[in-house]
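Q: what sequence does this backbone want?
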């Protein structure tokens, strides 16, 4: 069976250095709307110092969705996911809106 491929309609920023991964979306005042952050490598996130909820999509090395956290609120954390290699942080509600489910393949326009 062929897996569903989702192409994200957002500008995706890459966080692939220690500092970019550490900072992530912390301290931003306004919620993200038409953008996302792809954190590589990353298999868990924290929402410390965040001011708005986000959707968190964990991907394996083939960009297949292995776990989703819908509308993760500030001051929460996720448990590490062994199969995850990277994490997409997207606007709250967008995973459901875009039909992103476990098993989907994500394509990002970077």
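A:
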């Amino acid at each position: 069976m062929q897996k569903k491929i989702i192409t994200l309609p957002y500008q995706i920023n890459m966080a692939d250095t220690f500092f970019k991964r550490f900072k992530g979306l912390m301290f931003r005042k306004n919620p993200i709307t038409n953008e996302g952050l792809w954190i590589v490598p990353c298999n868990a996130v924290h929402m410390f110092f965040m001011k708005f909820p986000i959707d968190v999509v964990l991907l394996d090395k083939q960009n297949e969705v292995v776990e989703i956290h819908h509308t993760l609120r500030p001051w929460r954390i996720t448990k590490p996911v062994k199969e995850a290699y990277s994490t997409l942080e997207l606007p709250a509600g967008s995973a459901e809106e875009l039909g992103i489910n476990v098993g989907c393949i994500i394509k990002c326009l970077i």
